Structure formats: structure tokens, C-alpha cells
Amino acid sequence: MTRDRIPLVLGAIVLAVIAAGPWIPQWALFILTIAFAKGLVALGLMLFLRAGLVSFGQALYYCLGAYAAGAIGLYFRVSDIFLQMLAGGAAAGIAALVLGFLLARYRGIFFGLLSLALSMILYGLLVKNETLGSTDGFNIMPSTLFGVRPGPEWVRYAVTVAAAAVAMGCALLVHRYLNTPLGRLAPAIKDNEIRVEYMGASARQAIHVKYVIAGAVAGIGGALAATTVGHIDPEMSYWTTSGEFIFITILAGTGSVVAPFVGAAIFGAIHTTAYDLSPNTWQLTLGTSLLLLIVFLPNGLWSLFTRRRAG
Amino acid sequence: MAAILDAQGLSKSFGAVTAASNINAAIEKDSVVGLIGTNGAGKTTFINMITGYLKPDAGAIHYEGRDITRLAPRDITRLGICRSFQIPQLYSSLTVRENMLIALGIVLRNAGLGGFFSRGEPRVPGYDAGVHEVAERILERFGLTPYRDKNAQVLPGGVRKLLDIALTMAAKPRILLLDEPTSGVSAEEKFGIMEMVMKAVKAEGATVLFVEHDMEVVARFAQRVLAFYDGRIIADAPPDAALRDPEVKRYVVGAVRA
User: Fold this and answer.
1) Does a structural domain hold residue A208?
2) CA end-to-end span of chain B
């Protein structure tokens, strides 16, 4: 059996961010932090994709996480970044636990569209809610770390390091989950659910667990994005946001828990470059890159690593 | 000898079609029972009712004195009643070895082992070894080692059957239900498959019910035969007597040979 290198890789990513962070320009730190946030959502989608499911509504939990992080500032004056992420993850995780009783019963297009419908219900509710700023949303309290607000030149760095630590911590936990018998069941559920049941396991329960994990990590990602951008609005729950997460997941592939973060970083880079070069047609560049990827690397960017190892 | 499985008054209809009509059968522990009958006679319906896939309209099934009639398939499996399928149900995108690892993973999970908080490699209950070693052992026992790294979907028919049965056996069932273990397999392979399965069963000590159309296989491996016709059991006797029964000759053996 080969040695599991993933914990080392995740640790190395955190150390690299800590060490190289002070030399990375502020705008790049921003992109990196957002990549960690979106990577967390894609990490959850990866769990679904392994079991043969696609959620077109994961933005629901991303948005819930963001609003929960904003709400604890608004109502309790809490601005600690770790508490914001905790609140985001908890709110989204609890919502996923409840909605999971419904969603875990469905497969294929029904699972996808039902998740889309739920995210659009949240969007509708937020748009109609004047207290939470309606379509304008509201600004989130500037984040602090353990009660301290770093100086302006260090804020981005501190937030990025916190993002890296939390995101890689989540990835490590998901990696450990994937190595449990329940976690390993995903391809079996995708292939033959009847057989899974006749072996004495519950496919529905396995999917429910994945749904809660995916919801919680998406919530943490949403809280992180909210505190990084400093603003929250209902667009975070809109279906195009969910589409972006699917884009990242397909770009990354499902080979490893590191892949979603690599995918999110590359997505951020393509998005920024495309927008910089041509602000009016950046979607064209994004679409073309996805098209090329599906044609030439159908198993995502991560297959480049596994293919090289196999060869 | 005490009955491990007791079906009393099982009936099942699908609209106007009666698939099972007042079926009574007590299965003794460690026995090997062959279920015969033409297509549509009710053999698979009987197996589907025991394994919880179908719920009978009337009657009850007791396993070691416990009523299991309304339990879900996975709960019945967890009690030790496992089945194989007429059409092998495999994880076709995975290799033979990965198929076995999934099966053993479920065994671990049902025993509460190998969870998120457990440390080290858990030992599979009943085997006293880790999953990887146990997987190799089972594959070896069923002659599947040469195919271990092949994808399940590219396997020859006989090997698919064997893998399907091997996956079922991984949980060390107390009762093993085999739905046509030799159908779709060449005449030469039939006895080989059954011998391998029976050897494994003998080593594990399980009660076996198998559905079979080949009377030679039935005569050689079954200790008792239940002959089905039109949703009823028309004969319940040792193979020699059952296969000589005039009704069985008329409705089952003759029909199969025709």
C-alpha cells in the first residue's frame, strides 16, 4: 500500500501561504482567499459527483453561510473570522441536515433540480427581505482575529492564512471521511444502489451524510467569501453562482481533496485574466476553457497528476 | 432439527396474477435446499419475499423465531440473510478487488468498525485480518485472483456469477439465497461454480437456498427440493423423491426439458 501523502500536501499548502504570503500582492491574496472559499464549496460537490450526483443549488449553503456570518456581526457584534466561519458552517450544516431528509431520496436530474429550486427559494426570500438589505444586501463587520484587527497592510495576509488553515483543515477531515467505509461507498452508490442495499448499507443515509458535509463546508466557504469581500447580497444564492461551483468541480476533477482548491485557484486566475483582457466577453473565455477541458481532460485537471503517476 | 427460517402462509399477487399462494416452508439449519419450477412459478418471488424486496400480502416469515416479514432488505441482510442475483449485480466501474473492498467495508461499517474516529486498520469480524488481506483470501477461494485488477464489466459470464456470489459471501451469511447461480453459464462451468460455492459454504457453515433450472445440478447438490408451480409448492422432498413425483414430472421437469 502506498503512503497517504494528502495530509502532508495540505500542511505544505498552509505553510507555503504563511511563508510566501508577505510577498504576494494584495490583489493576489484576495483571489487566493476567494479560491479557498470557493474550493470549499467544490469540495462538497466533489463528494456528490463521486456518488453520481450533481447539485445545481450548492450556492444555497454558500449564501446561508455568508448571511450567518453577517448576522452574528449585525445582531451580536461578533467579528472574529473563525467565529464567522463557525457560524456559517453551523447554519449551513443544520439547514443541510434538515433539507437532506428530502434531497437524499432523489437521484439524477431530480436531485439536481430540487437543489436548484431550494437555492432559488432562498434567493427569493432574501430579495424580499428589507431587514437584510433586499437586493442590495449589507456590509459585514470587518473581521478580527482573536479580538485583534491587524493593520491595513496585514489584514489580507491574516485573512488568507486563516482561510488556508481552515480550508485545509476541512479538506483533511473530508479526506479522512473518504477513507471510512461510508466514504468509500460513493462509487458503489453511483454504480449499483440495489447491490449496496442488499449488502446491508443504506445508500440514502450515505447520501444524507455527504449532503450535510457538503452543506457545512459550503457554509464555511460562504462566510469566508463574505468576510473577504466585506459585503453580502442575495446573488450569492443565485443559480449562476451554483453553476460557477460546478464549473470549478469539473475543472478540478474528483481525484483528491486538494483538487477543488487547485481548480478554484485556476478558475480565479482564468476569470481575472479574462475580465482584465476583455471585460465584456470574459464569459466567452471561461466557456471556451471549460469546453477545451471537457474535450481534452474529461476527468479534470487532477487527472494530469494521476496520469503522470500511472505512466 | 430446528428451523432457522420459517415461512407461513405467504401469498403475493400482482393485480390478477398470483405469484405466491399460501406458501409454507420451514428450512432447517445448515441444509441445502433447491428451489425448482418453471419461469413464473414463484421461486424468485419467494426469495424476494424472504429478502424483503417484496412484502407478502398475507403470511409471515420468521428467522430464528424473529418476525422479519416487514423489514427492509438491508436490515434483513444485517441479520445474516444474504442473496446473490440471477443477473449479477456488480459495481461495474470498479475492479474485482475494489468490488470486494466495498463489500468488506460494509461488513466493517455494520460491525461499527473503521469509522471516522477509529485508529489503525480495523480487523474484519469473522476473519481476524485487515480488509486488504481478507479481500485477497476471498478472491483466492473463489478463483478470482487472476481477475483481481480487471473491471467488473469486462468479466466473462461465469466469473461475473462467481464475483456476485463471492460478494454475497463476504458478510459470512447464516442463510445464503442464490438466484440461479448457474444460469447463463456454460455446461462445463456449472458444476465448477456450484462446487466452489458449496465448499465455501461448508467451511463457513451456512444454510443455502438456491433456485436452479438444471436438474442434474439440483440432484447433485440439494438435500431437499421445493418444487414450485403456479405460486404453490407442489412437492417438498429429497431430490430423488421430488424429481420422481408425478406432478413435478408433469409441471416442472417435463416443462424444463421441453
Assistant:
1) yes
2) 37
